[in-house]
Write a structure and sequence with these properties.
Length: 312
């Protein structure tokens, strides 16, 4: 274990909204993370605090073993690329790249120039006149050319077409292989980045619900399809995260794996074992967590009502 970021009991509250609810996790050196979750789950808030662009309500954050706030030693080693990045009204892309070159000590101008050509980025227009995809390209170029020891990409490729996104993925992997560093990718395009990321960090309603290697995550769940009664027999007491049915046919996704003997028995019983993609797993897990939370709240409300009735 060689963490470059250590987060302990991190909480962030905005008036009546709890954006982060006592989360704790480590980010290891030289790994590509998928920092995933629904809109409003707390991803951007967490990254803003890690990069000293926001303040925690409570808890602690250590980056390279130090507090990042007003710490130039730490901040010069971090690059945070966000979709909502603001630039001066008269700024052009060349001005953004020039400023980045002065700030980041590992800046690579050669890769910057190559990416400008690959993304076909117009350099004479002001940034405020660029399309959403072109603006995203500016952020992607800075994130890659900075070669920062830790780079955060917070949905920076929104607006990029499929070809441009593939350029980004290819260049990211190629440059990471030559210059290993820690990269956090926040994205809704989970299937597209699933082959890039080595670890999965999933946040939902301000809490971490998954923190494991991508390989472990892919083995986290199993999907069974077939006769509903036979499927339910195999499910037993396992935790189900999704269930749907059509007539007598059921499709059930549950946490865990079948044993080799169960696998053979399921095949013999005519059941299909379908793979669970990383995107499907995360979608099902977040919805299941939300459902479980709602059920718990309903149960608490019932318990409270019963207690009040007993008191009366």
């Amino acid at each position: 274990m060689d963490p470059v970021i250590q987060v302990r009991d991190l909480t962030k509250r905005y008036k009546d909204t709890l954006a982060l609810d006592g989360v704790s996790f480590d980010i290891e050196r030289n790994a590509i993370y998928g920092f995933l979750g629904r809109n409003g789950a707390g991803k951007t808030t967490a990254m803003s605090i890690l990069t000293a662009q926001n303040f925690a309500t409570s808890g602690s954050v250590k980056v390279f073993g130090e507090d990042p706030y007003e710490n130039s030693r730490v901040l010069r080693r971090i690059c945070f690329v966000r979709e909502s990045q603001k630039y001066p009204d008269d700024a052009k892309a060349k001005h953004a790249f020039r400023a980045a070159r002065l700030f980041f000590p590992n800046w690579d101008q050669a890769i910057c120039d190559e990416l400008i050509d690959e993304f076909q980025l117009p350099m004479k227009q002001t940034i405020k006149k660029l399309s959403r995809g072109q603006l995203s390209a500016v952020g992607v170029i800075i994130g890659l050319a900075s070669r920062a020891e830790i780079t955060f990409f917070d949905e920076p490729y929104l607006g990029l077409d499929a070809v441009a996104r593939q350029i980004f993925y290819d260049r990211l992997l190629a440059d990471y292989a030559e210059h290993p560093r820690t990269i956090l990718l926040s994205s809704h395009l989970i299937d597209e980045i699933s082959n890039l990321i080595e670890r999965v960090l999933v946040i939902d309603k301000g809490q971490i619900i998954m923190d494991q290697s991508t390989e472990e995550a892919r083995e986290r769940a199993t999907n069974l399809v077939g006769d509903a009664q036979v499927v339910e027999r195999f499910i037993g007491r396992r935790e189900v995260i999704h269930r749907e049915s059509l007539g007598r046919v059921a499709s059930v996704t549950f946490l865990g794996q079948l044993s080799p003997s169960e696998f053979d028995e399921a095949r013999a019983a005519g059941l299909d074992l379908a793979p669970v993609s990383l995107q499907e797993l995360i979608v099902r897990s977040t919805r299941h967590a939300a459902s479980a939370s709602t059920d718990a709240n309903d149960l608490n409300a019932i318990d409270t009502s019963e207690q009040e009735g007993a008191l009366r």
